[in-house]
Amino acid sequence: MVKKALKLLLSTQAKATCWFLGIYALTMAIVLIVFSYVKIDDTSWIRETIIYAPKIYLLVMGIVYPLVATKLYVSRGLTRKQFFWAYTGAISIVSLFLLIPILASIIYFENISLLSAITHYLHMPLYFLIGWSSVVGFQFLKWHMAIFGVLGAVVMFHAITTVPGLLALSELAVLGSVILLLAAVLLILPRIISQIPLKV
Fold this sequence. Notes:
This protein is mostly helical. The protein has one domain (2-193). Helix content is 84%, strand content 0%. The chain has helices at 2-35, 44-75, 80-109, 114-139, 143-161, 163-166, 171-193. Helix 4 packs antiparallel against helix 5 (143-161) and helix 4 (114-139) runs parallel beside helix 7. 26% of the residues are buried.
């Protein structure tokens, strides 16, 4: 059942991701053409945009899709945990393709290490799970759960974006912290999701 759901979710997310990549590539091409006529000393924004756009896309997918699809898949016979693992698996596979433009931009502007490449890959499903964490409380229809979910998501977001820079962590330390955070979310979030009251 989980494999069947994984294939279906992978197909759905692959189509959505192709649309995202197409629109994003067109937007970046237009922006680069426009800025080619303007002299700008600092072009680091190009690299940062390419790196963070796929991650923000997955963050948004983590916020939106579980809200609209959890009940649908549960009504088709999946448990909440099965839906979680099938969807997370699909996003992990899609992330491999979204990693390509990220690595290409980093390699173009600077060198990249294996540890950094792995960290960038793990960031993507983690961004997705952070998005899901931020909305899971709303599915319980309890205000304190909603606030707890949003605050937890904000803390996790800053833990992988702000804290490593402030503490000047090494690449190995950053990778280790990302793995620990990802493992914690994968351990805790499905247990919370399994308790969501859904009438199907």
